[in-house]
User: Which sequence fits this backbone?
């Protein structure tokens, strides 16, 4: 795509430079040149789902988008909608701890990431790092669940 749209490139370094800014990847160069679609339609899609769907459905939609649509900034989409995707996990933790004031924590978001990664593995046999996302901390989730079970007994 770049070779067709950048006139007379003489090096890979030149291909990665747009308006004096050298980009780390060819994909970011394509984005800077507006050769790729942005994530606006994925943002709108997830936003609509947040207004009409349950957290498990939003996580499933996000996993489908990650595995089949290759969004340009999946981490930005995660950061924007992670509370919606983790909402039911928070609800479960509040019930388990009998604490209605419990708020989102890193462990709750990690739980949502684990569920999303599990879906991505089912859909495309890919972990989140292969989809340009941060990997969930599975050992922390196991540790957290163990501590929670000990407190409940």
Assistant:
């Amino acid at each position: 795509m770049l070779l067709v749209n950048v006139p007379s490139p003489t090096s890979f370094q030149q291909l990665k430079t747009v308006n004096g800014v050298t980009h780390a990847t060819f994909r970011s160069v394509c984005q800077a040149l507006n050769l790729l679609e942005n994530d606006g339609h994925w943002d709108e899609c997830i936003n609509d789902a947040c207004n009409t769907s349950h957290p498990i459905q939003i996580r499933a939609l996000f996993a489908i988008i990650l595995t089949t649509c290759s969004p340009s900034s999946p981490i930005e989409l995660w950061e924007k909608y992670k509370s919606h995707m983790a909402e039911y996990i928070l609800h479960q933790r509040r019930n388990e701890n009998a604490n209605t004031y419990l708020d989102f924590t890193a462990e709750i978001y990690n739980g949502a990431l684990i569920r999303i990664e599990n879906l991505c593995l089912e859909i495309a046999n890919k972990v989140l790092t292969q989809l340009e996302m941060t990997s969930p901390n599975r050992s922390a989730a196991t540790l957290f669940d163990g501590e929670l079970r000990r407190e409940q007994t």
